[in-house]
Design a protein that fits this description.
heterotrimer, A mainly alpha (about 325), B alpha/beta (about 600), C mainly alpha (about 290), A: about 325 residues, mainly alpha, about 75% helix, B: about 600 residues, alpha/beta, Rossmann fold, 2 domains, eight-stranded mixed beta sheet, six-stranded mixed beta sheet, 22 helices
Chain lengths: ~325, ~600, ~290
């Protein structure tokens, strides 16, 4: 098994290399004049030349590539054109808030999505099944940014129940400082015993969380249902029943264990989508995560920032797929 | 009142085509301790019966319209699923399934599945006791090294081992009534014999009532006391096995009996025909990695030094069990694989040399008809495109000429000419097989290979296909290589026969001669382990102990010596040469090397 | 050509059978109905909408009016009728999606079939490249590409095609590998049919079913992606009517003038939903367990 993990890690690294090569190609070859982005549109020719020299744009392409790789290995994702700050440092500041949302969505997808899928499969073609199917297909068809706006409309404007955005209300940090243990605000509040702040943060996270979780819950429910339906039609389930094994055991032991591999892949896939959805939604909720960062970078066409986020996103995706592959390998039939 | 009774049972099946009656049984009864067989075609009927009895039938497509199934007086159809699960399933009736690979949960070890079932039927049994009991049962079904089998996953076991595990699982339930649904369907003939003997043994010792379902009358005649013939959802004939087999009343029964009886031999071939195909010391080894044992670069010796000659107009039948290499041999001869060593000459021309220069002449002259009529025709092509595919490769014909030729070919195999513009799924298995035969004749080949031509089609069509093949041979002076596990088919069509074991030809000779006087120990064991309708009862079956060795690690010397009752020291040391024991009859056995021409003592 | 009718009639009959099965499922009928409505709306937009000129002209004096009998979805920040623009946006969305998915299919299917059919080093190279592209979360790659190529619908299509084709390649490759083992492919090899013909006439036609299911659902997915890109101001540009763009510009006045954002979003939802339902229904029809084939 360890050999398998090692092999997969190796191939993930190779894939990462490919990803990085593509981002290099995109960011260094396509743009017509990166130098002008660096110094601004009203620069003189001398300033442009100086910038080109500084950015290493006059070196031959392979040299640029080598520099690029070297920088990446050292964790240097380039310098943000507008703020002149290292992209990596800026990213680190914004990552925890995004992770908090995505992690919650992940937990909800498993805790709500999988049981929904299971019961839907068990009670096939009955009311519960139809409801779950409709809900899950509806959930994956809703545009996430629209859901964010819609929820704000209902819960903030019409019902005045929940805040419109931000992680904490403006008043929360007046008398107390924001805790920084793990970077995940809710957890930090619990860990440091700041219960008032915890409640406040909880109020603020509800709407973004619902928005971002809808898609993965729907996807996981649907995929679990179809995987389970297929398994329940297999001969070994019929055989198990013929030996007098209880329905409960047939479903939760015999069937479920067989669906782990497919479910893991589906959850990993849904997390990839969730990550990008989160980016879209954060600016709507003024959530201080990578999404806000990238929204502003996109409008100003800030390449290093965009590339930095892209590489980060691809890394997350590769890691998620790696984890899913390892879970699939737990199936004894898989030849390691 | 009988121990088990079925009265007026009607089961239907609903599909988008409509509602079809699958079972319509007026009356059936089984006495306690008896072995009762049900024979019918491959289709839904028999398995549906087994599933209905245990209330396992999927009732959206299936409909149980009426009837009663009585076990010890209780009507099973009246019970709810929960009641069935609690008391009947496993506890009173246990089932032995047909396909052990798909019936064992792939993510659980054999041990954990067995312990589960044991503890289900023995409340309060602790894990240790269950473990011991499971090992005990595995030994009872004659599984070697039971302890290590407990820790294995289903995919790590061989077909025969898996089937024994299924039997052991049925025993775990402790039921007195067992339903065996074609338990030996996917097993090799020699393993089938030992599994049947095991089942009979268990049945006698534990006094279990058995309902045995099969599609082969000779299996039933070996195993059961009484038999019922199921045809078109009804039981058309019923009675003691000997009676039914010796004096079949219904036409269908007669057809069934006929299909498993040994028949007249094939038409003789005139002498002095030229040699069409010559195979010399052909070897085909595969380089593989055994991921389970984590060894790399192992050699799988699929075909190991095979030589023979085939004259024009002859039919060579190749028999052997799984892993003997008959399919690989044929695929290599057809140049679908690169040979590791050896030569093949077709009409005097070296096939592999010519193949390098894109010699299409060989492919034009050698065609193949596959076993599976469902997947050997592209489901998305029209029949006319399927049949004319060889034409398109070798000739440039206009649309009309092509169509005319296709119609001609279809007429030869007895298919209506308006089939041209239809899809394969609109035809039955037997008809598709004919279309495949028509396709194989399109390029006017000299040699046609038939790979299990009748295995996957129903009994009616089998007889017709065999007649068709004989007819076409006569008309076109075809030469055939026939692969089949059905000795009856081989006997009916072949002039020559080759018996293969682990990549070697162990016996070769005129069909009639080899059938009457098999000389090689393996050939003898093979013929003896096939149930014959002429010898009713199980004791006539001879079992062959041990498993077929893996071709990755073949035994040294004679490949059969590990299972041969007559093996001696020398057998493990060198591969026997081909010894002539009769006119054109050659055997590869050390014991016969010293006794050429003499009668062999058994 | 003389037997044209006879050649095509069986294919037409197959198609009719599929349509019949599609119609039996109530949910797919609903999806179909919605799609037909959408397409009709797209094609006949100039004739159907009350204010066709609002694609270009502005009526500042009328801006940000709530929904009324005159303007059933209200007006936007330039006084244009929201309802007309929403209907017109259907054209943009559906045509973009069809083009993007079409091109992705043309690239992805042959690559996947070749990878699966040949195996070996060809398979390895194609799959490595595919894996690299598949490692980008789809939207991110599209964002990155558009950010660099420049905003605009055509660049958005290019970006989407680049991120989408690997999914089809992987799907087709998996299918091709199992179809390769089918006996009719081996029969074709013994007959002597050329490798190219085997790939394009034997393997690909048998891989199509799951691809059709995926493609129909992907039309919805692409519409969503284009809307997301436009929401980020990377896709359609003013004054083109596009749902995502409308939501994006409407954000400035949200939540007070809610109609500018909400209605276009509902349109996205209904469109994507109906394509998803359609894909689901097609999958049920093509499932071999429910058919005779």
């Amino acid at each position: 098994m360890t050999k398998y993990i090692f092999k997969r890690l190796l191939s993930s690294v190779l894939v990462l290399l490919g990803v990085v090569t593509i981002t290099f190609f995109i960011s260094h070859v396509i743009p017509s004049n990166p130098a002008s982005k660096w110094v601004g549109t009203r620069a003189t020719q001398e300033q442009l030349d100086a910038a080109a020299e500084e950015l290493g744009l006059n070196d031959p392409l392979p040299v640029q590539y080598a520099h690029y790789l070297g920088d990446l290995l050292r964790g240097d994702l380039g310098i943000n054109y507008s703020t002149k700050q290292p992209v990596a440092k800026e990213l680190a500041k914004y990552v925890p808030a995004t992770v908090e949302l995505v992690l919650l969505a992940f937990v909800l997808a498993i805790v709500i999505g999988i049981p929904l899928g299971i019961y839907s499969a068990k009670k096939k073609d009955r009311l519960l099944d139809h409801t779950v199917r409709f809900f899950s297909i509806g959930a994956v068809s809703l545009p996430t940014f629209w859901v964010a706006l819609f929820l704000q409309l209902i819960f903030y404007k019409t019902l005045s129940l929940l805040p419109i955005g931000g992680q904490l209300s403006a008043t929360a940090t007046i008398f107390d400082t924001q805790p920084h243990v793990t970077g995940l605000l809710l957890l930090d509040c619990l860990l440091t015993g700041k219960f008032d702040m915890f409640l406040d943060a909880l109020q603020h996270i509800i709407l973004p969380c619902i928005t971002v979780s809808l898609y993965p819950i729907g996807l996981v429910a649907r995929m679990t249902r179809s995987a389970l339906l297929e398994i329940l039609g297999e001969d070994y389930i019929t055989a198990g029943r013929s030996y007098g094994v209880s329905e409960f055991k047939v479903l939760w032991s015999y069937a479920l264990k067989n669906s782990l591999g497919a479910t893991a892949t589906d959850v990993a896939l849904s997390m990839g989508y969730t990550l990008t959805n989160t980016f879209l939604v954060e600016s709507i909720f003024s959530w201080p995560g990578i999404g806000s960062y990238i929204s502003s970078a996109v409008t100003t066409l800030n390449f290093p920032a965009i590339m930095g986020v892209t590489i980060f996103g691809a890394c997350c995706y590769i890691i998620l797929n790696l984890i899913a592959d390892v879970i699939i390998a737990l199936d004894p039939r898989v030849r390691l | 009142m009988a121990y088990f009774e079925i009265n007026g049972l009607v089961v239907k099946h609903k599909s988008y085509e409509g509602v079809k009656t699958v079972l319509d049984i007026d009356h059936l009864e089984i006495q306690k301790g008896a072995t009762y067989g049900i024979v019918g075609e491959s289709g839904q009927g028999k398995t549906v019966l087994a599933l209905t009895i245990l209330k396992l039938l999927q009732t959206p497509p299936g409909i149980i319209e009426r009837g009663e199934i009585l076990l010890d007086g209780e009507n099973l159809l009246r019970k709810s699923v929960k009641e069935m699960q609690r008391s009947v399933r496993g506890g009173k009736i246990a089932m032995i399934f047909q396909d052990p690979m798909s019936c064992l949960n792939p993510v659980f070890t054999v041990g954990s599945t067995m312990i589960d079932v044991l503890r289900r039927h023995n409340r309060g049994m602790n894990k240790k006791t269950a473990q011991d009991q499971a090992v005990h049962l595995l030994e009872e079904v004659k599984l070697a090294d039971a302890e290590s089998v407990m820790a294995k996953y289903p995919h790590q076991l061989s077909g025969g081992q898996r089937q024994r595990v299924i039997i052991a699982l049925a025993l775990c339930c402790g039921a007195e009534f067992m339903i065996a649904d074609e338990p030996t369907r996917n097993l090799d003939v020699t393993i089938q014999a030992s599994v049947l003997k095991l089942l009979k043994d268990l049945q006698r010792r534990r006094n279990i009532t058995v309902l045995f379902i099969a599609n082969n009358l000779s299996l039933i005649s070996a195993f059961c006391d009484r038999v019922a013939i199921l045809h078109n959802s009804k039981i058309i004939e019923e009675g003691p096995v000997e009676e039914v087999v010796r004096n079949p009343r219904e036409d269908y029964t007669k057809l069934l009996v006929d299909s498993v009886s040994t028949k007249a031999t094939a038409q003789p071939v005139p002498a002095d025909q030229p040699v069409l195909l010559k195979v010399e010391h052909l070897k085909k080894y595969f380089r593989i990695n055994d991921d389970i044992k984590k060894q790399k670069n192992l050699t799988l010796k699929a075909v190991d030094d095979v030589s023979f000659q085939l004259h024009q107009g002859e039919v060579l039948g190749i028999v052997g069990e799984s892993g003997c290499g008959k399919s690989t041999l044929v695929n290599t001869i057809l140049n679908l694989f690169e040979p590791t060593d050896g030569k093949v000459f077709f009409e005097g021309v070296d096939v592999f040399e010519a193949g390098k220069n894109r010699g299409n002449a060989f492919k034009k002259n050698v065609q193949i008809v596959f076993q599976d009529p469902y997947w050997s025709l592209n489901p998305r092509w029209l029949i006319k495109d399927i049949v004319s595919e060889p034409l398109d490769v070798y000739e440039k014909l206009g649309e009309n000429q092509r169509l005319a030729r296709v119609r001609e070919l279809l007429a030869m195999v007895g298919i209506d000419e308006d089939a041209c513009f239809k899809y394969p799924h609109e035809f039955s298995g037997g008809q598709r097989q004919r279309i495949a035969i028509a396709r194989s004749l399109a390029s006017n080949p000299k040699l046609v290979v038939l790979d299990e031509p009748t295995s996957s089609i129903d009994v009616f069509s089998q007889a017709q296909i065999l007649e068709l093949i004989k007819d076409l041979r006569r008309r076109f002076n075809l030469t055939n290589i026939l692969i089949s596990h059905d000795l009856g088919v081989v006997h009916e069509l072949s002039n020559q026969i080759a018996v293969m074991y682990l990549g070697h030809i162990v016996e070769f000779g005129p069909a009639e001669e080899v059938f009457r006087h098999p000389r090689h120990p393996y050939t003898q064991a093979l013929f003896d382990s096939i149930p014959s309708i002429h010898a009713v009862g199980i004791d006539s079956l001879k079992t062959l102990e041990g498993q077929i060795p893996s071709p990755i690690n073949p035994p040294s010397g004679c490949p059969f010596h590990t299972r041969c009752a007559q093996a001696c020291q020398a057998c493990a040391q060198r591969v026997p040469a081909h010894t002539q024991v009769g006119e054109g009859h050659v055997v590869s056995c050390l014991l016969l090397e010293d006794h050429t021409g003499m009668e062999e003592t058994t | 050509m003389e037997h044209f009718l006879e050649n095509w009639r069986p294919k037409w009959n197959s198609f009719k059978e599929s349509m019949y099965l599609l119609a039996k499922n109530k949910l797919s009928l609903l999806a179909f109905a919605i799609i037909i409505l959408l397409v009709a709306g797209a094609v006949f937009a100039p004739v159907l909408v009350p204010y066709p000129e609002d694609m270009y002209s502005t009526h500042i004096e009328n801006k940000l009016q709530p929904p009324s009998s005159d303007h059933i979805m209200g007006t936007d920040e330039l006084g244009r009728d929201v309802f007309s623009r929403v209907v017109y946006a259907t054209r943009v969305s559906i045509s973009t999606a069809i083009v993007a998915v079409g091109v992705a299919l043309i690239i992805g299917i042959p690559l996947g079939a070749i990878a699966g059919a040949f195996g070996g080093w060809i398979d390895n190279i194609i799959m490595r490249i595919t894996d690299v592209f598949l490692s980008f979360p789809p939207l991110l790659l599209a964002i990155a590409l558009v950010a660099l190529l420049g905003s605009g619908l055509s660049n958005a299509i290019i970006a989407i095609v680049v991120s989408w084709w690997p999914w089809y390649t992987r799907l087709v490759r998996g299918q091709a590998i199992s179809i390769k083992e089918r006996k009719f492919v081996q029969a074709a090899e013994t007959i002597g049919t050329s490798k190219a013909k085997i790939i394009f006439r034997h393997i690909i036609p048998n891989c199509i079913s799951p691809v059709i299911v995926q493609a129909s659902m992907d039309i919805g997915g692409v519409i969503m992606t284009v809307a997301s890109l436009s929401f980020l101001s990377l896709g359609a540009q003013q004054p083109t009517p596009e749902w995502g763009l409308m939501i994006s510009t409407g954000r400035a006045f949200f939540p007070d003038k809610w109609w500018c954002c909400i209605f276009p979003g509902i349109a996205i939802f209904l469109t994507v939903l109906s394509f998803n339902l359609l894909g689901d229904a097609i999958r049920e029809i093509l499932d071999p367990k429910t058919r005779k084939r």
